[in-house]
């Protein structure tokens, strides 16, 4: 009886784990060239709303000071110039910063937020690259 109960718990927990991964797999980043992105920070901008992006620019400057190697290849995507479906399955609203690892979005901050609210999650995501 104990073995059946343990087996049932194992099956249920596995099913719960696999269904929770469904959300992660829907956040794939796809470039036009179908290029694999190992580690990348992408900034989504809209030149029509530059005033909303000031905290993002300030956060990027500070993040570049903290993580110069990780942000050397910061990709800036203008939602005015590039077709959004060439960048992500569902592109974020502008402004936004997305951290990608192995073609998966591991961190996304978007909308009207403070510099600190941008730096904290993006820093955590970048720091996970070194682990």
Jot down its keywords.
single chain, 131 residues, alpha+beta, 18% strand
**In whole angstroms, how far apart are the ends?**
41 Å
- Taking all residues together, what is the mean pLDDT? 75
Give the biggest beta sheet.
4 strands, mixed
Beta content: 15-25%
| DSSP, total strands | 4
- The share of residues in helices is 25-40%
Judging from the principal axes of the Cα atoms, what is the shape?
globular
Question: Largest sheet, order of strands side by side?
Answer: 2-1-3-4
Question: How many helices does DSSP assign?
Answer: 3
Which ranges are low-confidence, i.e. pLDDT below 50, for 5 or more consecutive residues? 10-27
Provide the gyration radius in Å. Answer: 18 Å
Structural class from helices and strands? alpha+beta
- Provide the succession of SSEs: HEHEEEH
Architecture overview:
- The chain has 131 residues and is of the alpha+beta class.
- The chain is built from 3 helices and 4 strands, in the order αβαβββα.
- It has helices spanning 2-25, 54-66, 115-128; strands at 39-45, 75-78, 96-101, 104-110.
- The chain has a 4-stranded mixed β-sheet with strand order 2-1-3-4, with helices on one face.
- Helix 2 (54-66) links the parallel strand 1 and strand 2.
- Helix 2 runs parallel beside helix 3.
- The longest helix is centred in the N-terminal third of the chain and has 24 residues, at 2-25.
- The chain is globular, with a radius of gyration of 18 Å.
- The model is unreliable at 10-27 (pLDDT under 50).
